[in-house]
Amino acid sequence: MPESTFAKCFNTKFQDVDAKYSWINEMIKARQELVILYMKILNVSLSRSSNKNDICYPSYEDVSSFCNHLVDYMSHGHFDLYPKILELIENASGRSLSIVNKVLPKIEKTTEYLMNFTDKYSDDLDESKMATVQQDLASIGKAMEVRFKNEDRLVIALRLVHSLVSSK
Q1: What is the mean pLDDT of residues 7-29?
Q2: Smaller CB count within 10 Å for the chain: N or C?
Q3: What is the model's pLDDT at position 88?
Q4: What separation in angstroms does the CA of 148 have from each of 1, 26, 74, 98, 125?
Q5: Which domain holds residue 98?
Q6: At what angle do helices 98-121 and 82-93 cross, to 10 degrees?
Q7: Structural element, H or E, at residue 113
Q8: What is the CATH number of the domain that holds 58?
Q9: Which range among 37-46, 59-68, 145-154 shows the weakest confidence by mean pLDDT?
């Protein structure tokens, strides 16, 4: 995947934010680390050994590490970042924005899907599970892309509300 397409799909670039919102950059950095781990196991699963009939699987350790980072990333979002963003939006605007009501269910849907992946691959890995990892990784990439785009929508809503309140 070309660098620009990769960055565009997964928005791995740091966003310019006010110092009081620097934790958004921390979220982007965690996202970068997660995507790097994802690409590492995806690239291994797509490579072939010298015998074209043999499929190379990512190591169990790499898959497990990705699953652990994925769970950490989702947990941090649900239990720390999203509530913080929602509170800031509501405090600044005096009301809940419709974007939040549209975005959170989409994020929650990806959480369920991603958790199913981590449940399957986080431990007790064997060759039968690893045989399906390549197929599952393609779907996981799409789910992460949807999640990241919706997280970005929350950040954009926060920025908009902040700029509207600051300009008054």
Answers
A1: 67
A2: C
A3: 83
A4: 18, 14, 11, 19, 27
A5: 3-166
A6: 180
A7: helix 98-121
A8: 1.20.120.1370
A9: 37-46
Counting beta carbons within 10 angstroms of the beta carbon of residue 83, is it exposed (0 to 12), middle (13 to 18) or buried (19 or more)? exposed
Which residue reads 């997660």 in tokens? 34
Residue entry with tokens 């399957």: 120
How many distinct structural domains can be found in the chain?
1
* 3-class SS of residue 108: helix
Residue 78, token pair as written in the block = 């649900």
Which of 106-112's residues contact partners 24+ apart within 8 Å by CB, and which partners? 106/146, 106/147, 106/150, 107/77, 107/82, 107/147, 107/150, 107/151, 110/143, 110/144, 110/146, 110/147, 110/150, 111/74, 111/78, 111/147
C-alpha to C-alpha distance for 18 and 162, rounded to whole angstroms: 10
User: What's the confidence (pLDDT) of residue 11?
Assistant: 52
Q: Alpha-carbon distance 3 to 46, whole Å?
A: 18
Task: Give residue 158's pLDDT.
Answer: 84
Burial of 77 (0-12, 13-18, 19+ CB in 10 A): buried
Q: Are 28 and 37 in contact (CB under 8 A)?
A: no
Q: Is it the case that residue 49 has pLDDT exceeding 90? A: no
Q: 14-23, 28-37, 67-76, 109-118: lowest mean pLDDT where?
A: 14-23
What interhelical angle do 60-76 and 23-46 show, nearest 10? 150
